[in-house]
């Protein structure tokens, strides 16, 4: 007897054998039990999720002489005839090769004759979205008012291509992708029944590679078993057959990317190519790996979302901390674009190498994502002291006195003025720098205690705040000064019109407000303004008590 592929041999023949589509199975069983059977059904979903299998089970169930809880008995003459393909009550049509008007006209002629045996004539039209416009129009009238003994089951992977006039005449059922645990459970059943020895880790990888398709999972298993027939099917065997890459390699590559080690990335890719790994599969798996890192970096309980060991999760948490979430999202976008290109590319290796160069050399790109990463790289180098201006340039900048110091300076100038902080030392503002022609000392302004407390608290942490908010806030709010603007309100002063255009948006200010409320437990509102030409930023804000102590006299307020 010739060999039959696993996905054909183990096709479900009862509703109870269908996996992962419980919501659809239960509904159809209830319809059969209660005899509330519709005349037209539309099964939508990705490949290999059970659309055709359920359609065939349903066709047997409605004609079964002894149905069992809504499922066919598969023993009566009607069920046996449909299973063997000899029954005229069930007609399967492949719309991909029978998509013309004449094919639909044949169906319209056939439905005029009732079944010679059984209750219903069932027409299963697979890939129905391939029908021509004329064929859909020819089907409409029959689909809307078919004879009482006719049932249409339309199956498609692209429901968006079906005319709305057809959709409105059908009961629609959306088939879900089958989960990895469900796939693994079914694969365990089949390998046990077939006497195949296999590691559970190997089955888990096959299930993940199947991308929610039971048919794909069985086909991949069939392929791997054939290559290692009669032996224990291990995880490494599966990787070899499918041309896939072990997850530990992804960690090495990601660390090389995080360190901007282009040479290391290319070297790792060279090893994968020499091992015969399939680059398209590598790109898809690396996207999934980056997705897991992003979940660990942004979600509190990501461990419950990831199906992996505690050791792997601990290692991936360390790797997730090497880059911020915005950079991880850029990596995913670059490789998602690569996934679309590599499908039709003739030079796949060159495309993958180009993607790694984009990740490690953002200066070579000129899109918004790469510019943000370049700005962040500069900020990181400024913070750790690995980037410094030449002495001459720094001196020239000090002489000119132009610009405002970065907000990070606020953490070093956090002392109150007049307490050893130096002349004009204000948290979050630039040190006062005077040219020889300056004669006016810094202006001192008294603030109520509550406003002064809020101002100092925010100024002392201003650099940390904008770093933690990240994104466009981190890049546009760097050279800014925080000023008081009334009770529970602060104003952010920008010197760059470009930065002001970004920072003045309600969404940006709202992010700052939400972060401050979460970090300090205070509801502080923020405004923004653009600094005027020649405006000084050396104002010293003090409390009434500090001002009295400084001038050694009481201050009397007079009404004018």
From TrEMBL:
Top EC class for this record: transferase
Record keywords: ATP-binding, DNA replication, DNA-directed DNA polymerase, Metal-binding, Nucleotide-binding, Nucleotidyltransferase, Transferase, Zinc
Region (Disordered), start-end ranges: 398-441
GO CC annotations, alphabetized: DNA polymerase III complex
Taxonomic superkingdom: Bacteria
Record's catalysed reaction(s): DNA(n) + a 2'-deoxyribonucleoside 5'-triphosphate = DNA(n+1) + diphosphate
SUPFAM superfamilies registered for this protein in UniProt: P-loop containing nucleoside triphosphate hydrolases, post-AAA+ oligomerization domain-like
This enzyme's EC code(s): 2.7.7.7
Coiled-coil annotated spans: none
SMART domains linked: AAA (SM00382)
Composition bias, Low complexity: 398-416
AAA+ ATPase domain boundaries: 37-179
A single BP term in Gene Ontology: DNA-templated DNA replication
Pfam family, any one: DNA_pol3_delta2
Family to which the UniProt record says this protein belongs: Belongs to the DnaX/STICHEL family.
Name of the protein this chain belongs to: DNA-directed DNA polymerase
Organism this protein belongs to: Candidatus Lachnoclostridium stercoripullorum
Gene field: dnaX
């Amino acid at each position: 007897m010739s060999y039959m592929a696993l996905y054909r041999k183990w096709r479900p023949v009862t509703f109870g054998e269908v996996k992962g589509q419980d919501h659809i199975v239960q509904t159809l069983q209830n319809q059969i039990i209660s005899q509330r059977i519709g005349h037209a059904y539309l099964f939508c979903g990705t490949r290999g999720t059970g659309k055709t299998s359920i359609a065939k089970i349903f066709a047997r169930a409605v004609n079964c002489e002894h149905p069992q809880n809504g499922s066919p008995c598969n023993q009566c003459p009607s069920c046996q005839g449909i299973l063997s393909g000899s029954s005229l009550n069930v007609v399967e049509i492949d719309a991909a090769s029978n998509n013309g008007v004449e094919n639909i006209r044949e169906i319209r002629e056939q439905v005029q004759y009732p079944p010679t045996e059984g209750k219903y004539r069932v027409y299963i039209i697979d890939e129905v979205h391939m029908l021509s416009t004329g064929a859909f129009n020819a089907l409409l009238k029959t689909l809307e008012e078919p004879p009482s003994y006719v049932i249409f089951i339309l199956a498609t992977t692209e429901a968006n291509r079906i005319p709305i006039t057809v959709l409105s005449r059908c009961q629609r059922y959306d088939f879900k992708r089958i989960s990895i645990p469900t796939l693994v459970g079914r694969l365990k059943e089949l390998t046990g029944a077939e006497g195949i020895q296999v590691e559970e880790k190997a089955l888990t990888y096959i299930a993940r590679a199947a991308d929610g398709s039971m048919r794909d999972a069985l086909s991949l298993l069939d392929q791997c078993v054939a290559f290692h027939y009669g032996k224990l099917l291990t995880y490494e065997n599966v990787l070899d057959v499918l041309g896939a890459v072990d997850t530990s390699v992804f960690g090495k590559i990601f660390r090389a990317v995080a360190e901007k080690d282009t040479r290391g990335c290319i070297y790792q890719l060279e090893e994968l190519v020499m091992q015969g790994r399939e680059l398209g599969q590598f790109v898809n798996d690396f996207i999934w790996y980056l997705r897991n890192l992003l979940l660990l970096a942004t979600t509190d309980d990501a461990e419950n979302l990831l199906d992996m060991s505690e050791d792997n999760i601990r290692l991936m948490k360390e790797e997730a901390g090497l880059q911020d979430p915005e950079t991880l999202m850029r990596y995913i976008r670059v490789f998602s674009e690569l996934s679309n290109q590599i499908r039709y590319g003739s030079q796949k290796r060159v495309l993958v190498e180009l993607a790694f160069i984009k990740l490690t050399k953002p200066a070579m790109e000129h899109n918004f994502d790469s510019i943000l990463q370049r700005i962040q790289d500069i900020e990181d180098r400024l913070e750790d002291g690995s980037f410094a201006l030449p002495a001459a340039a720094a001196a020239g900048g000090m002489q000119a006195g132009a610009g405002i110091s970065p907000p990070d300076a606020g953490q070093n100038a956090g002392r109150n003025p007049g307490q050893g902080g130096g002349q004009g030392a204000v948290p979050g503002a630039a040190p006062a720098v005077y040219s020889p022609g300056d004669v006016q000392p810094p202006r001192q302004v008294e603030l109520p205690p509550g406003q002064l407390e809020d101002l100092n608290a925010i100024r002392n942490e201003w650099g940390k705040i904008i770093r933690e908010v990240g994104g466009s806030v981190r890049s546009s709010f760097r050279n800014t000064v925080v000023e008081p603007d009334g009770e529970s309100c602060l104003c952010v002063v920008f010197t760059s019109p470009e930065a002001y255009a970004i920072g003045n948006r309600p969404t940006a200010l709202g992010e700052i407000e939400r972060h401050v409320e979460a970090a300090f437990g205070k509801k502080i509102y923020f405004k923004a303004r653009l600094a005027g030409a020649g405006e000084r930023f050396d104002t010293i804000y003090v409390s009434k008590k500090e001002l009295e102590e400084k001038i050694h006299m009481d201050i009397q307020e007079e009404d004018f």
